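Support reply, case 0932

Customer input (verbatim):
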Amino acid sequence: MNSPTQSDTDKVSKSKVTGPSWLEPGHGYQRRAAVLSVTGNLVWPFQAALVAAALGGLLTGGDVSPVWTAVGYIVLGALRAWLGVLAEASSQAAAEAVIHTGRDRIVAIEAGRAEDSPFGGAGSVSALASEKLDLLAPYVTRYAPARARAVVVPLVILALALWQSWAVAVVLVISGPLIPVFMALVGMAAKEASRRQMAEIGSLNDLLVERLSALVDIRLLGAGDTVLRGFSAQAGDLRQRTMAVLRVAFLSSTVLELFAAIGVAMVAVFVGFSLLGALEFGAWGGVLSAQAGIFLLLLAPEFYQPMRDLSVAWHDKAAADAVIDDLAAWDAAPVVHLLGQGARAAPLAGPATISLRGCVLPSGLMLEDIIIAAGESVALMGPSGAGKTSVLRIMAGLLSPASGEVDVAGHPLDTTTADAWRARIGWMPQSPHFLNASLRHNLSLGRDGDIDSALAQAAVGGVVAALPQGLNTRLGETGGGLSGGEARRLTLARALYGAPDVILADEPTADLDAATARIVADGLIARASQGATLVVATHDAGFAARMDRIIRIGDVS
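Our regenerated output:
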């Protein structure tokens, strides 16, 4: 395998700097929604003009046609409603595009990782892809249309108000900007509260996944009440952070509604006193007409409404900003890609040889060249954290070195050969893990082989026979109902199933009693004696002494 810089699937990548915006898939729909929403709102001045003309005519005894006024008002109202429906549909389409594209992106990258995400545990990543990503929907559906309305509609209404009365225009000019100013001030507090809430959601999901994975042990230790109290305390903390976000939202809404109400009231007072004759200034003609006064009264609330809508959407923006920060942190985390597609493939042709030359582990450790001949048994030894597991994963094509070349069976180990190479490997991880399927499927994984022979080599046939449904038993992910030694021997049987000619085992005898460790070691050595290439990462000096040779990883001085 060549240096990771030669292929996207072989390298550590960061997509935040060059990758597409998380909101980009919805931009086209958002622009359409904004245009439709603004157009719909601009229908109202025409409706207000009809109403003002009708009521002004009635007050002054003018010629008024109630029927045609009503028909015009209804037609314009229907047009406004239709434009609103279209705008809402476009907004929903934008939200779906953003969420579905983002979720597909997260799942695709997480599925192709060779290592756990540096962003956090499975709970944090799942929360990011589900509930956190869903929090972008209110922002996408409401903020872009509200921002467009707040930019265009108040200016149009201000121009219409100025056309009728400079005094009303002055009231609007003074009171209107106060709303965005306070909206921005409150929005900063809302963003910080939302950020803390997002962090707590991720931590709580990680805690839940961790506790569920250890549920059997928790019950055996009788620690259920203690775990429940801890989880309840963290859930209470999340509840308090959520309420803090809601308090900020309600406080800001109250302040903004106050300014809007004061502005409308000042317009109403001016119009009322002008129509009563108490005020003879403020209109260009000297006296404000009844029709103009009613028109201004109808326009005033609509001047503030787009800004009030934007204030609501501003809180959606604060929550979305917190989510985007999390997405950026996830996106900036290095991705070590898994080689191959993880699909079934015919075994790679060639001798079962493994060669690592000039390899540097992702941790930065430079390895001595490792050359393993076909049929050779090798023990990898070194202190904990030295990189023994990483070396095994590199040999299996489950991890790419930061640099260097890996050859297997006489071929470079890369995306084109990884699946075929893994078809020859029996893999024994340090921690037993089982699929949500029968034991038979967990051992065979859809491969051809002799299951009885594998059970016999692992000396675990009696354990399987004692299970309630034998090979049809479902064990759960961690092998519930089995001892650690029994679960480890079953993973040995899985590694030996199908008689692979390469066995890679990570600490196969760790934490086992002497008798079980001897059974596991005997099973691996027996397979090696039949011609398989065996590479074992171990701290067990006695087991290592039975191998053909020992390779030291890291500083063991």
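We compared this against your earlier run and they match. Two observations from our side: The radius of gyration is 35 Å. The chain has 18 helices and eleven strands. Please reopen the case if you see a mismatch on your end.
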